[in-house]
Amino acid sequence: METSEVLDAVIVGGGLAGTSAGWDLRDRNVLLLEASDRIGGRLKSEARGDNWLNWGGHVFSGPGSVTDRLLTETGTAAKQVGGRLASVSLNGKTITSGGIETFPFRLPIPFNARVSLITTGLRLRYAVIQYGRVAKPIPGEDPAVRQLRILKFMEDRTFADFLGKVPEDVDLLFGATVTRSSGETNEVAAGYGIGYFHQVWDRAAGLSRNILGGSARFPAAMAAGLGDRIRLGAAVTSVEQDRDRVRVRWTENGTEREAVAKHAIVATQAHVTRRIVGGLPDETAGALDQIKYGPYVVGAFLTGETTPMPWDPLYALATPRRSFSMMFNIGNVRRTGEQHRAPGGSLMVYAAANLARSMASLSDEEVAARFRQDLAEIYPVSRDVIKETVIHRWAHGTAYPRPGRSRLQPALEKPLGRIHLAGDYLGTWYTETAISTGAAAAKRVRGAL
User: Within the chain, which residues score under 70 in pLDDT?
Assistant: First the structure.
């Protein structure tokens, strides 16, 4: 074991939460430990010339957010998504224009499904308006108060309960969006599922910015502020505190190591935090045990077209009854404001929750073949322009709130002395939650030093 000097803080985890904490403490004596061989966590992208492949989180908050502050401070270029957020391909027809209220009349679905889509859509529209009111920030309000209010919204039932008994086409259509959470409609709290539609239907209030060059550039820019104070391949095994110190132990290159610090920020997924942090209060340990994640199987396609493509105008496409639930036109952000169409592009598709689990026995090559086949059935031209396909699997994707999730929040936010928790599982705003909780943890550490 090696014992270093007493650090101001050790940050465990190099995803968005950890790197945001590291950025805000870059002027202090800190160490960031990341178990994998790269920074970024569930933000994963790779450049391909002027394009990039993406396999993880890809949308970010706008002006006035913590994300916006850090984008500005790090000089990371971000751009508002210009393409359409609500499009659908179902039963052989793809709709990428017109109001969503026209979809029931334009999709090839039975009459009973058409009626159900209209009535259920109206109920959902009203619920989205309610969600927007609940989620609207109040000037001077503690962010934790707002988060708890959002968690409580329609958390007494699942999204499937909210839908009620609907025809299969309607269930699959709404499910394609809700399973973005990595949970099924009968697992996810109704209010949380409604929040996804709020993001899609209210572009200004949701997550609707992309990082130019790929999402991974953002955590990399924040990590750059720490330089050689980052250790990759450092798998933390324990975080223990006594009265005035925290001891963090990890394994690196087969060697056990230890650091002593005044504080530790643990920015790992809930199940990892539960395993490595010693001496947790029973209620906090129990709350961490109840946080659930679902899987994703993601396909990224590099395209080499030189002429306009049918997917150019859109950003997101729901694809029920396919091997993937959604398609995202990652290259769309390059199209916004473009005078002349640049060559090439990038698409991303994913299967989530049970659909992802159904692919567990398939090889990456088999998954890629299925994804390409379904993409070609929607857009035949894709057969001619795909130049590269890369599959990535996330065993633990997004932490999705189940009914009653708000009851866990006090235990998750309970002060833990010199140990501070951060991560997207602490809220419902995905990348913004990860970043804001990392920044908040850094602020608490700075205030205590």
Answer: 1-4, 204-205
The CA distance from 293 to 291, in Å, is 7
Digit-coded pLDDT (tens) for 120-170: 999 999 999 999 999 998 988 888 899 999 999 999 999 999 999 999 999
SS3 401: coil
Give me 175's structure tokens: 């499910």
Other Cβ atoms within 10 Å of 282 Cβ, number: 8
CA distance 280 to 92: 53
Residue 96 — φ and ψ, nearest 5°? Answer: -125, 20
- The Cα diameter of the chain in Å comes to 71
The number of helices, as runs of H, and strands, as runs of E, in the chain is 17, 20
pTM of the predicted model as reported, rounded to 2 decimal places: 0.95
| Neighbouring-strand partners of residue 252 | 234, 255
What is the rounded CA–CA span in Å between residue 93 and residue 79? Answer: 30
Place of tokens 């259509």: 173
Q: Which tokens sit at 409? A: 């929040």
Q: Which of 402, 399, 45 is nearest to 191 (CA)?
A: 402
Q: Which domains are delineated in the chain?
A: 3-42+216-292+401-448 (3.50.50.60), 80-211+293-394 (3.90.660.10)
pLDDT one-digit tens code per residue, 422-434: 999 999 988 999 9
Strand ranges, E, within 233-353: 234-241, 246-252, 255-266, 292-293, 296-303, 316-318, 326-328, 345-352
- Across 378-392, b (16+ Cβ under 10 Å) vs e yields bbeebeebbeebebb
b/e map 103-116, b = 16+ CB within 10 Å: bbeebebeeebbeb
Q: Are 155 and 189 in contact (CB under 8 A)?
A: yes
Enter the tokens of residue 436: 């804001």
Q: Name, in order, each residue with C-beta under 8 angstroms of 212's C-beta and a sequence gap of 6 or more.
A: 77, 78, 79, 333
